[in-house]
Each structure stands twice: as structure tokens, then as C-alpha cells.
Write a structure and sequence with these properties.
By secondary structure, the chain is of the alpha/beta class. It has three domains: about 170 residues, Rossmann fold (3-Layer(aba) Sandwich), CATH 3.40.50.280; about 240 residues, pyruvate-formate lyase- activating enzyme (Alpha-Beta Horseshoe), CATH 3.80.30; about 70 residues, no CATH class. It is about 30% helix and about 15% strand. The protein contains 20 helices and 19 strands. The strands form four sheets. It has a seven-stranded mixed beta sheet, with helices on both faces. The protein has a seven-stranded parallel beta sheet with strand order 8-11-12-13-14-15-19. Helix 11 links the parallel strand 12 and strand 13. Helix 1 packs across helix 6 and helix 9 packs across helix 10. The structure holds cobalamin and iron/sulfur cluster.
Length: about 575
């Protein structure tokens, strides 16, 4: 094999190799979506495996969308790992018009790995965790971890190294070619608030080290780095997979561990950093403590003076002090879940439960956007249109009121993907009961009626999850929901693959032309430069190639300029 043909990423030069290591674990990232997003999970998993005494290699395929098969073959030709972990961040684009599903692409990669090495494969990641049973069956792998994976991955590597049985690892998912089941005879694994057994959860972030995640390259080619301050979310928004897939209780990292990590990233030249918490402000006291530490270090002359922080935020809890601290700590932007202005009609679908739906009022959204704009912190308000109960009236109110917000951008998403363990999915399966066509359930690839069975009528969790992604013939068919009370023809609503095109036109016409520069509107295809679909968005790819940095909404208003720039060169 000619060394010159090898990508630098599989040449090992200065990765620590311990002669007395327990074994080699190879971690693989098969995410080809552009702009590339740093596979942070692999830094976390790698850090934990190293502390645990394993040698680790990271094979990152993101930048080799065409050459990945030969990269895999070459790597495994002279590496014999005892375990291969694959991270599945996105199962799909979750974009209701595009409805792109990444599972077949991921399966091609996993099949190639299987051909190249006899090592067992373990899967994890947020996309995987939204459908772990169906995914294990689809990918035909022996092991899977739902939720934060560091503890179970280390446990699995340890038992494989010592020749013991993984059967004893509570929470690990096992597949024997017929049945997916939890090990240790335990119950269905619930995503845990596990940040790791090393209390401070310090993660090594590196740049330019072969066979490791290259944080600087992601920043140079994607415009953003990332950091986790806490895991999990206690809310239960209709559509959202995160409380189930990431954990319903919040687990925080220590303040010094997070701020040291930020300092390390900034020192590597990664200046724009996006939080990867479900929502940054959920434990507001902790968020403030973190910001105070960043401010103290900035004032003491640390590299953090160059930090530009970008956050996902929830409208509550959010007060003036938090806004002040954000501004002083270098926060440049917040993506705010505004979701809707008619929560009294739409968001709470089962009042008797008292928990499902949005935990804030429209006034909270107005207040937070004002607090941010007064401090020149950019903000995008993300609205979700088409929830059950949405009518032309509620839609009109949502569009009109959202345009009054003092935000940099307002994004509208029409329709919602229906996930098996999110409140909307559970509700739709209950309503369909396996035989009833629920008005509003839709899939662009449906070839027949969409019927969903509730979990208690399914023979297994695998059967329950499978129906949300595949039809009865095994064809890929993700399920989406669009309110049937929107201005569509009855034939569109009656068809399982009907497209809510008239509503898209309605929204586009309702938004005055003078506002289009700052609004992300749904488009029929769902994958163009004007959509807030970040997956392979042509505008974003151009912007990062031109050197734009920071969260994508911060460039939104410069779409035309970016698209017409002659300085653009295709990014790799
Ligand atoms: C921040 C964020 C963004 C930012 C990223 C900014 C940045 N520079 O990182 C932006 C806005 C760019 C973004 C874009 C997109 N995102 Co996003 N994003 C997130 C968010 C909030 C955090 C992701 C993250 O890094 N988490 C921290 C890491 C450490 O967690 P993790 O990857 O899950 O890893 C842990 C476990 O999953 C597990 N694990 C992971 N891999 C493995 C592997 C093994 C072997 C094991 C054992 C365990 C394991 O252990 C890890 C450590 O605890 C998540 C939701 C969330 N709370 O995680 C959504 C989320 C991942 N995104 C999602 C989507 C759909 C997208 C887009 C496709 C949207 C779009 N159409 O534009 C794009 C894709 C971009 C791309 N190139 O891939 C979905 C995926 C849903 C699904 N079912 O597939 C999520 C879950 C949001 C949601 N609620 O639906 N995103
Ligand atoms: S949308 Fe945000 S607040 Fe709602 S459940 Fe998801 S992560 Fe939590």
C-alpha cells in the first residue's frame, strides 16, 4: 500500500499508544452532512476509553464522502480493534418537506466496516437513540447504547477485553440476529443523565492529531466548534426526542471542566463555539455560575477574551441577569425555541397529564427576544407550524406576532416528524390504534395508508419503532404530521403522500416581501438555500467556504451577497 495514498487522518504519528493497554477501540463517524459538525461524541467517548486504559483510534469519514470505502479498507488492513463504535448523530434531516433519511447511507458504511473487520460493532448517538430497537435490527449489529454512552461503552470494552459476557451490563442493548433486547434481563433502557463516572467529566479536545477528532478543521470548514455544559431536558415538547434520547433529568458538568475546555478550544483557534446542551439555560443558577467564571477568566487575560459563544435557549427560565452575563461572557447569539403564539390552543395535547406541551407563554418569548436585542445578542426565533389544532387563524397569528419580535431571524418549520417516543408519536399511535387513518399523518414516500400501532399492541419495541421509519414492506417511510385544518385541498389531506403546498404558499404570501431578508420560510422541496434546513444547505456551504464563522442565522441576512459572491470555491 502506498503511504502517499493514505489520507493523513489514518497515519498514526503522535497518538498515545500504551503497550499495556487493554486493547484497541476504533470509533467511526459516518456523518457526511455539510457544513460538517464536530463529532463531539467521539471526543467524549475517546476521553473516557483512554482514562479506562484502552488505545483508541477515531476514523472520521466526514471529509471523505467519496473515498470512505477505501479509507475503511486501508485502516482495517493493519488495525485489529477489539470493538468498533459508530456514532449515528442524525437518523434523518427531520425537515418536513425534504424528509431525508440517512439510515441507508449509514448502513452502507456499517456494511463496509463489517466486511473489513471481525470486531463487533456498537452503535450510539442521538439519531440512534431516537429509535434504538429498530436501528439495531436495521443495521444488524450486536450492541447498542441509548443515550449518553460513555459509561456503557467503557463497560462493554472492559468485559470484551477480559473475556466476560456483556450480558451483565444493565442498559446495554443486544441483538442476536432475531431479537433486540436489553442485557441483564433489565427493562427498556431509559436514556440516563450519565456524564461519566469521572465526576468532573473532562473531555480532551484536540486539533491536528492523527486518528483523533480534528476540532480546528471542523471550525475552519464549518465555522463552529462545540461544548457541552449539561445533558438532558425535563420538558416534554410534543415533537422532541431529546428528553427520551438524551435523558429527562438534567446532569451538569462542573464549571471548571467546561471553562477549561472552552479555553482549550479557543487556544486551538476555535473561537466560535455552540453549546450542545438541549437548552443552555435550563439550570439557570448553573448557567450563570459558568458565565461568571468565563467573565472572570476573560478579565484576568485568558484566551477566552476571543470566545464567541452561541447557545440554544428556552424562553424560561430567563431573566435580565442572565442576559447581562451572556453579553459580558461573549455570547453572540441565541437560538430560541419560540414554537408558537397560540399555546393555549395547540401545545398541550393531553391536559390530564399536565406535563406535555410548552412551559412558557408568548410574553416570555417577547421578553427574552427584547432582553437579547437590547444587548446586541443576535437571536433566531424558531416557530413550529402545523401542530394538531393549527388552523388558518392560529397560523395567521403566529406569523404576524412572530414578525413583531426584535430578532435577527425568524424561522418557520411547517410540519413535524413523528418519533416513536416523543409525545406526538405516542399520541398518533394511540389514535391510529393500528387500523385508523389519522388525518394529518403523511410521508412523501408513503405508498399506502399510514397506520401506527400503540406500543401495547406491538409484539416488541422493535415492531413499535420500526413503523415510524419503514412501511410494511421495509421501504424507508418516515412519518410526519401536518394539521389537516390548514388551507389544503381535501384530496391532499386524504393522500398519505399529500404535500401541504398551499399552506407553504399561504405562509410565503403572508410574510411581507420587506421581511423576507430576515425570515426562513418553508419551501416545497425543503432543501434550498432559503430553508432553515442546515443539512447540505447550499447557502451555508458557500458561506463557510468564504470564511464566515458563527451560528448560521448570523449570516442569514447576507444570503444574496453570499450566493452571488464570485470568491466561492467548492468546499471539500
Ligand atoms: C447543537 C446541535 C446542532 C448544532 C450543532 C452545532 C455544533 N457545532 O455542534 C446545529 C444547529 C448546527 C445542528 C444542525 C443539525 N442538527 Co442538530 N443538534 C444539536 C444538539 C442540540 C446537540 C448535538 C451535540 O453535539 N450533542 C452533544 C454530544 C456529545 O451528544 P451526542 O452526539 O448525542 O453523544 C452522546 C450520546 O448520543 C452517545 N453517543 C454518541 N455516539 C455514540 C457512539 C457510540 C458507539 C456509543 C456507545 C454512544 C454514542 O454518547 C455521547 C456522549 O454522551 C442535538 C440534540 C442534543 N441534545 O444532543 C441536535 C440533534 C442531534 N440535531 C438534529 C438534527 C436533525 C440536525 C440537522 C440534520 C438539522 C437540519 N436539517 O439542519 C443538522 C445536521 C448538521 C450536521 N452536519 O450533522 C437532531 C437529530 C434527530 C434524529 N432523530 O436524527 C437532534 C437530536 C435534535 C432534535 N431534537 O431532533 N444541530
Ligand atoms: S424542544 Fe427544547 S425544551 Fe422542548 S423537550 Fe426538546 S430540548 Fe426540551
Amino acid at each position: 500500500m502506498s503511504v502517499s495514498l493514505l489520507k493523513p487522518s489514518i497515519q498514526r504519528t503522535n497518538v498515545d499508544r500504551r503497550a499495556n493497554a487493554k486493547g484497541l477501540v476504533t470509533l467511526i463517524n459516518p456523518n457526511f452532512v455539510k457544513p460538517g459538525v464536530t463529532p463531539y461524541a467521539l471526543d467524549i467517548l475517546c476521553s473516557h476509553l483512554e482514562i479506562e486504559g484502552f488505545n483508541v483510534d477515531v476514523l472520521d469519514l466526514t471529509w471523505t464522502p467519496d473515498e470512505w470505502p477505501s479509507l475503511i479498507a486501508r485502516y482495517f488492513a493493519d488495525h485489529r480493534p477489539m470493538l468498533v463504535g459508530v456514532t449515528l448523530r442524525n437518523a434523518g434531516s427531520v425537515q418536513p418537506q425534504e424528509q431525508r433519511v440517512f439510515l441507508p447511507d449509514h448502513r452502507s458504511v456499517i456494511d463496509e466496516i463489517r466486511k473489513a473487520t471481525p470486531a463487533p460493532i456498537v452503535l450510539g448517538g442521538a439519531g440512534f437513540s431516537s429509535m434504538p430497537y429498530a436501528a439495531m435490527e436495521y443495521f444488524n449489529v450486536p450492541y447498542g447504547v441509548k443515550g449518553p454512552g460513555e459509561i456503557l461503552l467503557c463497560a462493554l470494552a472492559n468485559v470484551l477485553a477480559s473475556g466476560e459476557s456483556p450480558e451483565a451490563i444493565a442498559g446495554l442493548l443486544l441483538y442476536d440476529g432475531k431479537t433486540v433486547r436489553p442485557a441483564a434481563g433489565g427493562g427498556h433502557p431509559v436514556a440516563g443523565a450519565t456524564l461519566g463516572r469521572h465526576v468532573e467529566a473532562r473531555y480532551m479536545r484536540r486539533s491536528g492529531v492523527p486518528l483523533r477528532v480534528d476540532n480546528r478543521v471542523y471550525y475552519d470548514r464549518g465555522g463552529l466548534g462545540n461544548v457541552l455544559t449539561k445533558n438532558g431536558c425535563p420538558f416534554l415538547c410534543n415533537h422532541c426526542i431529546e428528553p427520551d434520547a438524551k435523558g429527562a433529568t438534567v446532569a451538569v458538568r462542573t464549571v471548571p471542566a467546561v471553562v477549561d475546555e472552552l479555553e482549550s478550544l479557543v487556544s486551538q483557534g476555535v473561537f466560535d463555539i455552540h453549546t450542545t446542551d438541549s437548552e443552555f439555560n435550563l439550570k439557570i443558577g448553573r448557567s450563570k455560575a459558568l458565565l461568571r467564571e468565563i467573565i472572570a477568566r476573560r478579565n484576568a487575560g485568558s484566551a477566552l477574551r476571543d470566545l464567541r459563544l452561541w447557545i440554544y435557549a428556552h424562553p424560561v427560565p430567563f431573566d435580565e441577569e442572565l442576559a447581562d452575563l451572556l453579553a459580558e461572557a461573549g455570547c453572540k447569539g441565541a437560538s430560541l425555541s419560540a414554537e408558537h403564539f397560540c399555546r393555549e390552543h395547540l401545545a398541550v395535547w393531553d391536559r390530564s397529564l399536565g406535563t406535555v406541551g410548552l412551559a412558557y407563554e408568548a410574553d416570555d418569548v417577547r421578553r427574552v427576544t427584547r432582553l437579547l436585542s437590547e444587548r446586541s445578542i443576535q437571536c433566531t426565533a424558531e416557530l413550529l407550524i402545523g401542530l394538531p389544532g393549527e388552523t388558518t387563524d392560529t397560523l395567521r397569528r403566529a406569523v404576524d406576532e412572530s414578525l413583531l419580535l426584535p430578532t435577527t431571524v425568524v424561522g418557520f418549520t411547517l410540519g413535524l416528524q413523528v418519533f416513536p417516543h416523543a409525545p406526538l408519536g405516542v399520541r398518533m399511535a394511540a389514535e391510529s390504534a393500528g387500523h385508523k387513518v389519522v388525518r394529518g399523518l403523511q410521508s412523501n414516500t408513503a405508498q399506502g395508508p399510514i397506520l401506527l400501532k400503540p406500543l401495547d399492541r406491538c409484539a416488541s419495541l422493535t415492531e413499535y419503532e420500526r413503523q415510524f421509519w419503514f412501511d410494511e414492506k421495509g421501504r424507508v417511510r418516515p412519518v410526519f404530521y401536518f394539521s389537516p385544518d390548514l388551507p389544503e385541498d381535501p384530496e391532499t389531506i386524504a393522500r398519505p403522500d399529500g404535500r401541504w403546498v398551499r399552506t407553504i404558499q399561504w405562509i410565503q404570501e403572508r410574510v411581507p416581501a420587506s421581511e423576507h431578508y430576515r425570515v426562513a420560510l418553508p419551501t416545497v422541496a425543503g432543501d434550498g438555500k432559503d430553508d432553515n434546513n442546515y443539512a447540505d444547505n447550499p447557502f451555508l456551504q458557500r458561506a463557510v467556504a468564504l470564511g464566515y464563522k458563527g451560528a448560521y442565522y448570523s449570516w442569514w441576512r447576507r444570503r444574496e451577497e453570499v450566493m452571488s459572491s464570485s470568491a466561492f470555491q467548492e468546499s471539500p
